[in-house]
# Entry
Amino acid sequence: MLPFSACAARMQALTPRLMPGQTLVASFSTEPDSASFDGAPLIVFPYRDSWRAVTPLSLSARPGAHTLRAVIRGEAASAAVTVLARRDAMIDLPVPTKLAQTPKQLVRSLATTNTSINSAVTAVGTTILFAKPFGLPLADNRRISSPFGEVRKTGEERIVHLGTDFSARRGAPVGAINAGTAIAAYADPTYGNSVIIDHGRGIYSLYLHLDSIVVARGESVRKGSLIGTVGDSGMASGVHLHLSVKIRGQSVDPIQFVSAFR
Ligand SMILES: [Zn+2]
# Structure
């Protein structure tokens, strides 16, 4: 084990305190031989003039003291990470009448849709497709109408909100949160007009309930490229943009991810 100061020079936890559902981000001055958190390997990639490693914490991650471990040029290094407990709000959200579904049917159709989306966003490719920090999708991102992790009480069902909702006017331009490839651009019965961007190495962003889509499947996008406009297509109770970020198939808090990845 290296003395702490030597470890710190080579490895730094950029998120020493975080919550379940958020993204652990670490920086390395040189490529690590391996890096892991709670025994699971991190996704490691070159970024600017150093290296980054990320891993998504599930919503069931255990609060308390954890350790980030790495091996760098054959030497072990570690950093303390504290996982804090979440305190999510619960709101009543009845099934929109236009869906004509019971809460149970809605939960079942959400599960089917999420399974098919997850099959598209779990691949961890070998290359990273971006070179800049992530950004947020709208010109004005200050009006968050529903945060990540909010629990929606729909009849007897509990549905956790696995993205961030931004309110905006219909037709407001939506930009890609970073460079990547649009791997899906389609109309989904539940999520409406949807775009999925692959940023490489298992990091994906999803833009749902769009009014219009202006990117084609397979197209490369830059950070901020126009991919669509804000709407209320699919199961939406008002005009807003739903943004999800998925890492290795796991949904993470988009706002925390964008601020932590630097
Ligand atoms: Zn949403």
Notes: Residues 103-120 form the longest helix (18 residues). DSSP finds three helices and 22 strands in the chain.
